[in-house]
């Protein structure tokens, strides 16, 4: 088996559009047809074929047949495992109600599914409305405006004390500036410093516990050897101790050694967990660093995907006061508050940022 380089580029394009720009299978099918990209037999890619491609692990270098699958084959890999896993999560989320992954990336709003009314905690929905306006030259045009609407407020007047809706342009502008600010801080910071600061104390404490338990175990093992050597002296009549007393000491030492071996194992497992967490956070930082590098230059759909992964939820209160929960675990960004001044106004919405 070998990789067909031309076909591989199509597969990579499909995964890129699906993961980074939020294309669904149907939209990808239309996109490939518009670009005249077809199968070797000349037929187009139906959405069913694209779904099968997205779910097929062979592109990660693993051959599967039913429940059996091969080991990783590097020369067959054309999609990295992280991209493949992200695609599976997106596909799973899109079949689940209220998933955090945007179901529709064609609309001109940055937030989809992860924005809520801060007062009644119900999800905000996107609505549009407009009216005819007259230009200076006398021509008439329809001015369409989009709003995030609290559907519960509209249907249950008096039960929610928040606003009925919030302008998409204004709220998205605030979110965009906050995301840019947060990503710029991450981009400017040292990933190693952040991860080290987050995990240094826990790792150092786990290492200290492991070292202490190891030293205590070694000392107790030496003590057991001394008792056993003393037993030989008793047999030879060269010791001041009797055998019964030495047997008690040996039994006690063996029991303590068993406990210390368990303590060493537990300390090692704790240390391994902290080291693994540091590795996970290092990879998370690298992913977010990539978002920071891409955000200013990517298209609107890609920005929407980045925001859906970067922001877990946004709660909106009166006068555009926001509470934002980020999908970021770094201590540097856990408790941070900033003010974001709206362009063209003197309003300064207070933003509570958590993770």
UniProtKB/TrEMBL annotation:
PROSITE patterns: RECOMBINASE_DNA_BIND
Coiled-coil boundaries: 203-277
Record-annotated Recombinase domain positions: 1-97
Record's keyword annotation contains Aminoacyl-tRNA synthetase: no
Database matches in Pfam families: Recombinase
InterPro entries associated with the record: DNA_bind_recomb_sf, DNA_bind_recombinase_dom, SSR_resolvase
KW DNA-binding (keyword) present: yes
Keyword annotations: Coiled coil, DNA recombination, DNA-binding
Protein name according to UniProt: Recombinase family protein
